[in-house]
Amino acid sequence: VDWKTPPVNLTSCLLQNFNATNVTKLCPDAQCLFAFYGGETAYHKYLIVLQFFNLFMFFWLANFVIALGQVTLAGAFASYYWAFKKPDDLPAFPLFSAFGRALRYHTGSLAFGSLILAIVQVIRVILEYLDHRLKAAENRVAKFLLGCLKCCFWCLEKFIKFLNRNAYIMVRV
Length: 173
Prior knowledge:
Oligomer: single chain
Number of helices: 7
Helix content: 55-70%
Order of helices and strands: HHHHHHH
């Protein structure tokens, strides 16, 4: 294969030209597939569900990383606070040792708190999507109920963040 010139040009992946090119000779398993909305395959049927799953996992992992940072800092401060002889009982690297203890002993608690928060955040995203879709509607009752739900879930998210932060501190101490 001559690597200076690519074996595929831009017109070779058109569906009508794909089998006539040398791509199938160079790579026998190559296929010319296009992803678009509204198809009939299993991929198209579950595309929105997979996108919501991806969003949910993003929220869960982001909240887990934030929780891990909070527990690590709480562990570093607790190791200083509970040391009887301050210079002698302190670990050499308090943040690294607190990080290791957080990963070893508190991963499940962090994952569960992050899961609850991620569920609430996905519900808030769904409500924002519904609000965006109802912008053109003139139904005042639906807009009022949606506004109330958005406000309630915003308050619930802030409350859960507050509870999680204090619970992580208590778990670590």
